[in-house]
Amino acid sequence: MTDAQAIDPEDRKIITLARSARARNGAPEGAAVRDETGRTYVASTVALASLRLSALQTAVAMAAASGATSLEAAAVVSEAEALPDGDLAAVADLGGTTPVLLAAPDGTPRTTLTATR
What is the percent of the chain with per-residue pLDDT over 70, rounded to a whole number? Predict the structure, then answer.
């Protein structure tokens, strides 16, 4: 993505939230998702002995547990150049076609992927 100005303000917001979660928790990645009602869910990587979830999987689980039926958008902030296996599938599980923004740790968008069923 070359033109940061082209990003919707609501999408910029979820990138900022994801970036904040990553920094606050000292995690490898942070994520935020926005549901069909505009509510946002923010998470970082979960790395417990018995449970491992990417930040995006955690944010999707939080949205689903709160009653979300679909997602409008998602963002992941990470040093990684690609999403972990299962991230797009987790987003797609809430149905529809959802853009997933992948951003660098400084919040600069790298690419937009699409989660589809």
Answer: 96
Q: Number of structural domains, the chain? A: 1
Residue 78 sits in a domain whose CATH number is 3.40.140.10
Q: Please answer whether residues 92 and 116 qualify as being in contact, where contact means their C-beta atoms are separated by less than 8 angstroms.
A: yes
Return the ∠ at Cα 38 (arms to 47 and 7), rounded to 5°.
Answer: 85
d(CA 52, CA 68): 22
pLDDT in tens, 90-116: 999 997 789 999 999 999 999 999 987
Enumerate the β-bridge partners of residue 103: 77, 109
Q: Tell me the residue range of the domain where 32 lies.
A: 4-115
Question: Can you read off the two tokens belonging to residue 47?
Answer: 């790395």
